[in-house]
Each structure stands twice: as C-alpha cells, then as structure tokens.
C-alpha cells in the first residue's frame, strides 16, 4: 500500500462468520466511511456444523472440504460489508479449525490451538507492517465464549501488537468484542415468553459465558444504517447460520438495533471522549490524532482530549 487511509482498522477473527456475527456492523460502518478495514481470519472453519443438507458431504468426517467452501462464503460476506482487504493468517489453510474445547480435533498438528504463538504472531506482524492499523479489534482472553480458536486469536493478536509496538508501528488502541449485561437482560426479558427463546434455561446474565458490566464497556458503535449489510453478510455464511437461526429471530423483533449496534471494551490505549452515563465512545478512533502520513483528504478531526491513562499490551495480559 503506497497511500495509507487516515483511519485504519484491523480485525482478527478465528473462523469465517465470526466477523459478520460479532463485528459486521462495525466493519460495514467504517468501510462505508472510507476507513481502511482489514480482516484477518485465522482458520477456514473446517470443523463447523453444516446447515445445508445438500452440502453435508463437505464435513470433516466426510470429504473434509468445508474449509474450502467457506472461503467463498467469507468472500461473499466481505463483499456485503464493503470490505475489500481480507487475508487468512499465514495464508489459507495454514491453520486448521480446532473444534470446540476438549475435542480430539484440538490435538491435530495443524490445529490453530496448537500453533506456536510467536510464529503465528509473526504472520500478523507482517500484515500490521503493511497496513499500519491505528485500531485493532479481537476477542477478550476467554475468546468471548471459550472456543479454543477464539482464545488463540486473542493471544496471537495481542502478541503481534506487542511485537509491532516494539518496532514502532503497533496499534494505538486495542478493543475486545463485548456484550453489556444490560443488553442481555433486555433480551432475556423480551424473549421470556417466546417459543423460540434463545435464552431458554438461562436465569440471569451471569449464567452465560459472556457479558460485561455496563461500566466496563468503553465503546458503542452505532451502525444501524448498515444493519442490512450485516444481515446479508450473515446470510452469506449459509452453511453455518440456518435461515431459522435465533439470530434472525432476534433481528425480526429488534431489527436494526440488534443488527446494527456493537460493543467493545478497551484493552490497550487511551479512552477518547464519550457520552451517556458511562461515557461510551461512539468511534473506535476517538481521541486519536490524524495520521500525518495519510491522505490529507481523508483525515479526520480530533474530538476532545484523552481521558484515561494508556495501557500497554503487556499490562493487558500478553504472555
């Protein structure tokens, strides 16, 4: 890349479809605004369930071709989101989907869960060296909900950020995907009497493997104008998300609010100005100065001043 955009966002996800479900509105929002959005996916998702009966033969226990098929699904999803820069970590097929925690697939030699941390981080550093992201988005230390590949994606992203920072081009801010407990509580209440209740058997948000107190959330990205793009991206992952998925059921009830709003905690960097009772940012680039190396026509104004002490990757728990 010879000319850098003024705003550059890098997202690191474990499998195809994770980007659309967790950060699709954010990606579409920033792509539409002219920011450089780069997606790195760590595996092909070979161990995923298949919800298209005609494609059942692609399964890992059959032809083991699901990963190749999901490359095309991911390409279609990125097109729906307006994202033109997508890479697989180390190249397509370098690392294999590890499957759910505790399964024998965790132990396969190519399983991402078995990847050498510095080797995998080195592949990501090369992407960072090229695109120079100011903002990095990935999962929290538990991989949001405990999947081994999500946990490993967190480790790799944080280690790569540490290495890139040592070389002088690490991201200024690192966010982890999150869900406020207040949003989970609202969903549980809304679906309590529904026959299609995705929270069935859950009595309180604390019973879920994810959910953050509202005062720990730092950013709320309102991409409601992009909710249709996010839904189209999710539908592109047809093998993984069936037409009758509870995700679409919730979307039918809450519409653009569900599809278009995404939340984050801040792991590294300085919190920018925000609003509301918790001062949530409405921009992942809040508080950052325009990049003098970028195209001046694409530069963004700085809004307000930083309000917290910066955190380093090491302080955020990088081993």
Automatic annotation (TrEMBL):
SUPFAM superfamilies xrefs: LmbE-like (SSF102588)
Co-factor binding details: Binds 1 zinc ion per subunit.
Superkingdom per UniProt: Bacteria
Residues the record lists as binding Zn(2+): 15, 18, 150
Keywords: Hydrolase, Metal-binding, Zinc
A Pfam family: PIG-L
The EC number(s) this enzyme carries: 3.5.1.103
Keyword hit for Transferase: no
Cofactors, names only: Zn(2+)
Gene Ontology terms, MF aspect: N-acetylglucosaminylinositol deacetylase activity
Catalysis performed (reactions): 1D-myo-inositol 2-acetamido-2-deoxy-alpha-D-glucopyranoside + H2O = 1D-myo-inositol 2-amino-2-deoxy-alpha-D-glucopyranoside + acetate
Function: Catalyzes the deacetylation of 1D-myo-inositol 2-acetamido-2-deoxy-alpha-D-glucopyranoside (GlcNAc-Ins) in the mycothiol biosynthesis pathway.
Family: Belongs to the MshB deacetylase family.
Protein name: 1D-myo-inositol 2-acetamido-2-deoxy-alpha-D-glucopyranoside deacetylase
Organism of this sequence: Micromonospora sonneratiae
